[in-house]
Fold:
Amino acid sequence: MLIRDSRIEDLTHIQAIYAHHVLHGLASFEEEPPDVEELGRRRADVLGRGLPHLVAEQGGRVLGFAYAGPYRLRRAYRFTVEDSIYVSEDCRGMGVGRGLLSALVERSTAAGCRQMIAVIGDSGNAASIGLHASLGFVETGILRSVGFKFGRWVDSVLMQRPLGPGGGTLPA
Structure:
């Protein structure tokens, strides 16, 4: 499996993976899948901020994608990013998410980020919570019933991981 920077030509694969999660899962609180053009705009925004937007590929097939986006837009949050990871449904449990998140942590650290936040949809999402915990994230809280999707209330689990020196030193 190769983890690499995403390319424009990956967007149709990214859109298909994301659309499945929007329509069938709770990892995203979107209810209508965005089109390829909108995902291209979002990708350009991430890259324009100097942040990573990655895909996992094997044999020419995109297995999943991940990116680091701003945690919040106010300037004081400029050293903190939020991770987003989506894996093709038929590739779950094969290490794709681990490879993407590991690379995202590494690349975000290299970009000068100091904290990474995971906002995990559904407190019952043991796979994502476990993946993040295995890579050094700690749970910082649960926002109860903040989303409403598929006819039920959904929690968000907040997890956090320092990057590089974290908050131990001042940024350059």
User: Anything to note?
Assistant: The helical segments are 11-24, 36-48, 96-110, 126-134. The CA atoms of residues 15 and 38 lie 9 Å apart. The radius of gyration is 15 Å. The beta strands are 2-5, 53-58, 61-70, 80-87, 115-121, 138-149, 152-162.
